[in-house]
Amino acid sequence: xxxxITLLTxxxxxxxxxxxxxxxxxxxxxxxxxxxxLLDRMTLYEKIGQMTQLNITMVNPSWDQGDVILVEEAARxxxxxxxxxSFLNGEAVPPQQWFEYMDGLTRIAMExxxxxxxxxxxIDHIHGASYLGESTIxxxxxxxxxxxxxxxxxxxxxxxxYESADIGHHWNFAPVLxxxxxxxxxxxxxxxGEDPYLASRMGEAYVHGYxxxxxxxxxxxxxxxxxxxxxxxxxxxxxRTPVHIGDQALxxxxxxxxxxxxxxxxxxxxxxxGEVNGVPVHASYELVTGLLRNQMGxxxxxxxxxxxxxxxxxxxxxxxxxxxxxxxxxxxxxDMSMTxxxxxxxxALLELVDEGRITEERIDESVRRILRLKFELGLFENxxxxxxxxxxxxxxxxxxxxxRAAEESIVLLKNENDVLPLQHPQQILLFGxxxxxxxxxxxxxTLSWQGGDEEQYPVNMHTIYTAVKAQYPDADIEVISEIxxxxxxxxxxLFFSGLERADMxxxxxGEEPYTEFxxxxxxxxxxxxxxxxxxxxxxxxxxxxxxxxxxxxxLVTDIIQQVDAFLFAGLPGFEGAEAIxxxxxxxxxPSGKLPYSYPQHTGHFVNYNHKPTDVYFFDPDVANHIAQxxxxxxxxxxxxxxxxxxxxxxxxxxxxxxxxxxxxxTATVTVTNTGEFDAKKSILWFLSNKVGRYxxxxxxxxxxxxxxxxxxxxxxxxxxxxxxxxxAYPDSKGEPILDPGEFNLQVGSLDADFRLVHQ
Length: 759
Ligand code: BGC
Hints:
It is a single chain. By secondary structure, the protein is of the alpha/beta class. It folds into 4 domains: 1-41; 42-391, Glycoside hydrolase, family 3, N-terminal domain (TIM Barrel, Alpha-Beta Barrel); 410-599, Glycoside hydrolase family 3 C-terminal domain (Rossmann fold, 3-Layer(aba) Sandwich), CATH 3.40.50; 645-757, Immunoglobulins (Immunoglobulin-like, Sandwich). The chain has 21 helices and 30 strands. The strands form 9 sheets. A 6-stranded mixed sheet has the order 11-16-15-14-12-13, sandwiched between helices. α7 packs antiparallel against α15 (396-409) and α8 (196-211) packs parallel to α9. The longest helix is centred in the N-terminal third of the chain and has 18 residues, at 2-19. The protein is globular. The model has no long low-confidence stretch (mean pLDDT 95). The site of beta-D-glucopyranose has 9 residues, from loops.
C-alpha cells in the first residue's frame, strides 16, 4: 500500500511537471523572472535569432511592391530553424491583408517554434500609419515643427498607434530626432527643424502620444528614437556622408532631443548609418555604450539601421569582412541587427561566440533587453493581431486632427498689400507641378518608401485644385498646365489677357517625393523651369501667390520680390490641400512659424542659433570686417510667420533682475490680438548668454507655447527661468556649465537683461 501511494505521488508529481506552464509563460510572474527563465532555456543560436531583424522580402522571396503576403515555408524556415525574432517593412495595403500576414507570421512563431517566443514587427509609420491603406496621414515632421504646438506631435503618435496596433505593428521607427540644421540634407523634412529645444518637446510629445495610447489595449507599442546621433549634419549635405561635430556641440545641440525622448520613455533607439568624427556610429563604443548607455542611461533596445553592420565593411571600410563588422558592432553595443536580407549576422555572431571573441554573457545582455521589450509590450499574452476594430482606421475625428495639424503648419512668409486672405474671388488660376497632384503633398515614407504612385492615393483626398474649388464653390477655378514662356508674341499676349481677368494666380511649386539618398541634390535653388514660370506669371498685373510644397527650403531669392504672397506649405499630408485652401480663404488664420532659417544663397547658410562669429563678414563698401546679422544669409528667419491679424506684446517684466543658481526668475508678458480676426499665435521665448566659457549662440529658444486669442483679447504669459534648466549648457564631456554674468531674455520685440550671480 505504501509503495502504491509513493508510486501515485510520483505519477502525480511527474504529470504536474509535464503539464505545468514554464515560468516565462506565466503572466503573473515578474518580468525579470520570466526573462531569466526563458534565457536559461534558450540555445545560443536561439538567442542570436532574437538579435536579428529581417526584411519582409525574406518571408516572401518573390516580393513585389504592393504585396504584403506571407510565404509560410520561408517564414517557417526562418522562425523555426533560425529563430528569427523580428521582421520589418511593407507597403500600404488594406488592414485585412496586414492582419492575415501578421496572423500567419505570428502563428508560426507561437505554435511552431520550440519556445513560442512572439515576433516583434517594425515599420516606418512616421507621419501616421503610412504603410497602411485607408489610414490617417498627418503632415511630416518639418510641418509639425512649424506648428509650435506639441499637441499635434502627440496626436500624430496617438492616432498612429490607434490605427496600427491591431494589425500587429508594435514597433514604429519614429520619432526622428535629428536636427534639421543643413537645409540641403535629403532627410531635412523628417526633422522637427533646426532647434534642439523644439525637437525635444516635439519628440517627447510624440513618444507620450504613441506609447501612451491606452485605447489600443490589450496591445502596447514601442517608439524608436532615431537616428542616434549627429546624422543630420553631413558636410556635403548628402545622406549618410561624413559628419564632423565637436564633442561640445554634439552634447549641446544633438543630444537633447534624444535625451528628452528617452526621458519620456522611448523604448528603443536606432543608430545613425553614417560616421561621426571619423568613426561609423555602428562601430562606436564611445557613442553607443559610452554616451547612450552610460551617460544618458538608456537600457532599452538599440537597433542598427538598414544593413549597417554590412556597411561597416563594404561602405565605411572599417572592417575586413562581415564577421569583423559584426564584432565591431556588437562590441560597440548594438542589441539587434536590421540585417535585413540574409542570415550573415547570425552566422557571423555564432562563430564569434564559438571562437570566444564575444562571450555568451554579452549576447545575454542584448537578449535580455529584447525579451524585456517583448514582455513589456505584452506580446507573450497578446501576440496575435485582431480584425474586429478596423472602424478605428481613418475616422473623421482622426482626419480632423490631421487637418488641424496641417492648418497650423503652413507658414505665411510674405503677404504684400494683404493680397491674402482672398475673399469672394470670381476666378483663380492654378499653375505648377502640385496644382492638381496628391503625392507631392505627403512626401516620402507615404504608402511606400519613395511615396506611392499617384493612383494609389485615396480617391477622396483633395489636391490643391479640388480643395480650392470646394472652398470657393461660386468661383471659376482652373488649372493651367501650359505656360507659353517661349511662345509667339501673339500666344503670350493672349495668355496674359487671360490672366488679367483672374483675381489671383497661384503657383504650387516645389519638389516631388523622395526618401533618403534618392533626395540628394547639388543645388538648393528651386528648379529653373519653375523659377522661370513664376517670374513669367509675375509679369501680369494679377497678384501671384507662391506655394512651396517641398521637404526643404528650395531657394526662391531671385523671384521673391516679384511674388505678392509666399507660403511655405512643406509636406502637409493627406489633409494638406484642404488646409491650404482654408488659409487662402481666411477660414483659417495662418499661425505656422518657420522651424528653421530659410537660406538666401546657395553658398552660405547659418542656423538662427549660430555663434556671433558665424556671420563675420567682409563688406567692401564699408571696407571693414563687420559682423552682420543673419539678414545677409537667411531670406526668412527661424520663427518667422505672418498672420492675417496683428499682435502686440506689452507689460514685459521679470520678477527679479538677479538670481543665484538655486533661485528662479519668472518673466511675464501680455500678448494682445490687436487685429480683426480670432487667431492662434505661438509665443517664443529666447535667451542669450552674453559671456560664456564656451562661445555662446547669439540666442536660443528656451520655451514656447501656442495660444488662441479672439480679436481684441489679451493673455498674460509667463516663463520661469530655472538656471540648471534654462541657463546651463554642457561642456565637451556633457557636464553642465553655468556662467555667472549677464543674460538677455527676449519675447516678441521686447527684451530684458538679468544677472546670474554666485551665492
Ligand atoms: C532608414 C531608417 C528606416 C529603416 C527601415 C533605413 O534606410 O534610414 O530611417 O527606419 O530604413 O525602413
